Structure formats: structure tokens, C-alpha cells
Amino acid sequence: MGHLWHGLLNSGxxxxxxxxxxxxxxxxxxxxxxxxxxxxxxxxxxGMWYWVWVLVLVSGFILMIYYVPVTDQAFQxxxxxxxxxxxxxxxxxxxxxxxxxxxxxxxxxxxTMRVYRIWFTGSYKQGHELTFIxxxxxxxxxxxxxxxxxxxxxxxxxxxxxxxxxxxxxxxDQNPTWIPGGAFINATNQGKTTAQILLGGTSIGPATVTRFxxxxxxxxxxxxxxxxxxxxxxxxxxxxxxxxxxxxIFSIILLVTxxxxxxxxxxxNPEVTPNPILSDWYFLxxxxxxxxxxxxxxxxxxxxxxxxxxxxxxxxxxxxKGWGQRQIFNWIGIGGFIYWIVFSFLIINSIADLHRDAPLxxxxxxxFLLIGYFQDWAYVMKRDNARWYQTxxxxxxxxxxxxxxxxxLYHYFGDIRExxxxxxxxxxxxxxxxxxxxxxxxxxxxEATQPTLNLWKTPASAVALGKPLGMELWKIHVIxxxxxxxxxxxxxxxxWARKRDLATDAALAKAKPKTAxx
Length: 518
Prior knowledge:
Layout: H1 2-9, H2 11-25, H3 34-37, H4 45-66, H5 74-83, H6 92-121, H7 129-152, H8 156-167, H9 182-188, H10 190-199, H11 206-234, H12 243-259, H13 284-292, H14 295-315, H15 327-348, H16 354-384, H17 388-391, H18 394-413, H19 423-433, H20 439-449, H21 460-464, H22 473-511
């Protein structure tokens, strides 16, 4: 406990020193990998995305001259840029717009690749955490800059995709009251207020286009100011790539622009709902996640994913960077990539079943972590030449297994109206015996007469009526989670203190002067 109190008392100065040290080591454009970039293109990604960003900004400034950010003229201004702005037979407007569109896509692709390169190579270690944080921030800003620019076309697909996105903040007013501050957020309608600030009102309209136009410009402009101030203070090279590399990247974007002109769809029509409603490609996986689970949980996860990634980064405390030496973190990255690819495919093909798919995806998260842990465990045993019980973390594995058990029991033995495998056959039998009943009426009868079918948690309405409680399995899992968390934390702190004491004793022994023998 003494180590803990000492750490808390010195947390302020230590945090400041930590930030100052990381600030000095931070890479924006992979400027510390100039030599590596000459032979390994993975270390040139920083220079590549910056070059693509310059192309996007220049083309965007040109488009600003001709674009009209008003709902009744926005789509027509895009048409004029696409078809009427020519130099002889050369469609200058279509080319500039294509460079802007495909350049933005390239920016997101390169920024994503850079985040994965830093993650898989462990380049955020040894004082480079801010490098990864800024790389992740660049990706997020790029995606949301693309989201704000997407609406400016004012076509059917963009309008309805933005409507879906605009509903996310509204669910933040549905916080459970047991969450600290949840009741206050609900009572003050902060989610609704956030949505209205973004939209400029209660629905998408002229004010929304104006605000998104401002956000679209502001996101890139503020980021550019931050980068240029950093460059000015440190005097390093922005792009560690050759002129030939720049020419090749520009040529690829130009060729894609010529052979696959940027589409602009049909004018926005609030009266006709497209099916399915799809966003731009980089948000498709998030749309599918929204379909797979409760909207409130989907909103919290969407906001929380970057913070979970950062938490995982800070938990990776070992110095090893090799691929086979940190498998649990490799599997976190692999799992994230698999989810993004598969979720995007599923929503494009309208494949989604809330009751069937959600438990499977939660299970896969646990499996990825378990696979990574056991591979990591094997490496640590070999590295330290230790027996299995000396390196096995029962608390980590136990917490995961409790979570996977809760996932199964909650989805398959929980809410009677959901995918409760005990209630469903009884509901079908009731409908067969009483053809005049609807499914909702059958579920109403089951909830009133047999609430204990919900093994996870007996409904509050049944408890209020004095009905008997079910198995209340949620209590067992909460106890399990708390037990593993507390014991794991206590034993982890003890292990950390023991290592620190051993390191201190070794340093003192090394510093102690040797005495000559008599």
C-alpha cells in the first residue's frame, strides 16, 4: 500500500514529466523513420498520408469556390462542377472532385494502415505512446471529416445516412440510473442537445448543411495548424518519401478518378426511405454494429472503442515488440480488422439477426483474447523457463470466461420477449392452441404467469406484483466479475511491488562499494 500512496501523491508531477518526454519523442509523419522508409514502405506511410492530405486540401479549396452550401442548390452545384466545368473536352470539375473524393478515401486507408503498423510492430512502446494516440486521432478526424463532407452532396444516400448518424447522441439520454451521472444526463437531455447542436435544429435542413460545411473545413484546418506549429518548432521533414513516390500516388488517384468518376447519386428526398440505408464505406461496420444490438449500447461502444484501444495499449507494459512475443495484443488488432471487414460485408448484403448474431460476435471477442493469451502464456513460460502455474493468470482467464457465460445466459435465457429458448416454444404452442392470439399477447401472458422463465433477471413488473424470483443469474456473474477484478488487482499490485523492491535491492547492491578482503 505504501507504493500505491506514494504513486498517488506524485501523480501530478509524474504525469507532466510523462507528457513532456512523450511530446519530444512523438512522430507525426514517421519523421524518425527516414532511413527505414528508404527500404520499407510501411515506414513511409506517414509521408504518404500527409501528401494525400495536401491533395485533398488543395482540391477542397478549389471546390469551395464553386460549391453552394444551401439545400436547394447544393446538389445542382455538384452537377455543375461535374459536367459544366471543362477546359475544352477535359472535365476539370469532375477531375478535381474525383481527386478530392478518392484522395479522402486514400487518406483514411493510409491512416488506418499506419495505425495498424504502429500497433502490430509495438512502435508505441519505449515512450512513443503519443505517436499512436495522435495516429488514432488523425484516423478519427479523417473519418468524421469524411462524414461531414458526405452530406454536402445532398443526395438521397447521404441524407438518410446522416439521419441514422444523427440519432446516436439521442440514445445517450437513456442512461441507466445506476451509472454515475446517468440520471443527470437523462434529466438535462444532453444527448438531444448535442444532436440539435450538430444538426442546427431538430431535423436535417439548411442549418445542418451550413454546420457540416463549417465542420468539414474546420476539422482539417485546425489539424493542419497543429501540425505546422509542430513542424515549425521542431524543424523536421514532413514527407520522408521521394518525388517519384508522390508522383505515383497522385497518378493512381488520377487514374481512378478518370476511370471511375466520383458518383453523386440522386437528389435528397426526405419522403422516400432507401433500403438499406448505407453510409460511406468506412462507417459500414459501425452501421451493422448498430443493427446487432441495443441502440444505447451501440452508441456507447462507438464512442468507447477508441478509449478501449488506448486502454489496451497502456496495458501492454512488456518491452518486447516482436510478433510472437505479444500475441494477445496482435489478436486484438486482428479481431478488430476481421469485425470491420465482415460487418461491412454483412450490412451491404442485408444480413443481420439481432438474436442470432450478437451472442456469436461477443463470443468471438472472448475467443480472440483467449487465443492470444494462451499463445502469450506459452511464450512467457519459454522465456522465463518457468512452470505453467508460475505464469498462468487465472484472474484474466476467469474474468473472460465469466463474461462469455454471461453473454450466453443473457441472450438465450434472459428477456422472455427476446431470444429466450425456454419461452419461444411455449409461445409457439400457445399460438397454435389459440389462433386468435398475437405474438405480443402470448408474450404478455408468459410474462404475467411465468416470469421465472427469465433465468437472467426477473422483470421488475413481476417483482412488484410479488411473483417468485427466477434464478437471478446476473447476481452470480456480478459476484464473479467483482471477485476476479479485486483479486487480480490486489495480486497484481503485490507482484508489481515485489518486482520493484527486487529492482531497488539490485540497484543498491550494484552501487554498494566493494571492500577488499583481509
